[in-house]
User: Fold this.
Amino acid sequence: MTKTLVQVLATTTLLAAAVGTTAPLAQADGTPPRGTLVSLEPVSSLSSTQVADFLKAGEVDSAGVRYGVRGYRVTYRTITPEGRPTTATGLLVLPADGRHGRLDLVADTHGTMVDRDYAPSVGDDGRLSPYLHAAAGRAVAAPDYLGLGKGPGRHPYMDTASSVSASLDMLRATRTAARELGRPLTGDVYGTGFSQGGQVAMALGRALSEGADAHFRLKALAPVSGPYDIAGQEMPALFDGRVNDTSGVFYMTYWLTAQNHVRPLYKDAGDAFRAPYAGVVDGLFDGSHTEEEIFGALPGNVKDLLTPAFYDKLQRPSGALLDAMRDNDHSCDWKPAVPVRLYSAAGDTGVPIGNALSCARQLAAHGKKAPVIDQGAVDHNGAFKKSAPQIVRLFDSVAGKA
Assistant:
C-alpha cells in the first residue's frame, strides 16, 4: 500500500528513536540499503565564466558566482511509492575550486518536469539553481525524483511521500559520492526547491528535522512557489481564474494521471476525461514526451478537458480525490527550528501566492514565523529567477559567510 507523507514522516521518527541512528537500513529482501551509491558518472565541467554565462542566458543574476563547477550523475538505491526497491538518479554538483575541507550541502529539488531527459542529471533545464549554489561554494544534491532522469518507471507526480524518500536517499548517496571524490560533506543541509520542488523541500526539511538521518543537520529552508495547499488553494485556483488555462490543463492532467497510478481516482480514463483526450492522456505523461507535444495534444482549458461530472467533482472533492489532495498538504504543518523564507510572486499564475500564504499560516499555527517574500508582478518562472540569487545570499548569511 502506498504510504502518505504523514506516515512516512512518522516512520522515520520511530526508526530514529528505536535504533538511535538513522543510517540506511537494508531492504527486507536482502538488497543493499536505501541510499546506497550504485554509480557515479561525470556529466559536466564549467569554469566560473561559463557558469556565469549559463546563468545569464537563463536570466539569473550571476553576481554570486565565485567558482567553476563539476557535475556528476549519481545512481542510487531507493524505494517506490509502494515501498519496493528501485533505483533513481540525481545530479551532484561540486565547486571546482580545488580547496580542501568539508562542504556544506544544498538539497535542491526541481519543479514540474514531464520529459525524463529534462531532469537535472541528464539535461540543462534543471541546472540553473544547482550551478548557482555550487558556484557559490557549496555541494548540491539535485534529485531527479522517481521515474525521471535515468531511473526506471513512471514519475509519481505530486506524490510527496515518495519524492521525500527519493530525495533523502539522494542525500545519502551524495554523502558517499562526495567522500569518494575527495570532497567530504559537513552534514549541514540547506533546503531549497522550486514549484513542485518547493513543496518537496519543505517536506524533506521536516523529515530531516525529525531525525530521518542523523548524518544531516537542517540549517535553513528557502522554497520558491511551492503548491503547499492543493485542497485549499491550488485546486480552487484552477477553477477560479488564478491559474492560467495553459498551466491549469497541464497540471490537472499530469496530477490526475499520475495519482491514478498511485491510488485509483477513476476506473476508466473516460470517467474523468472527455473524448478524444481520454484515449491519449495516460500515454502523454509516460516520461517520453516534451511539454510542447503535450500542450499540442490537450485542449485550451480544464472545462474542455474533463467530463462535466468529474469537473464538478473536483470542485467539491471527497473520498479518494480529497485524500489525494490532503495527503500532500502537510509539508508546512510543523515547527522548523531553522530560518525559513517562503519565496513567491503576486503575478504568478502557475502556483498562486496563496499557497505560500497558506504555508506561512500553517507554520505560524505551530509558533514559527516565516516571511513570505513577494517578488511582485512576475510569472512563475520569474519568481524563481528573482529568488534564486537571494536564496544564495540567505544561505551565506545563515552560514556566517555574508
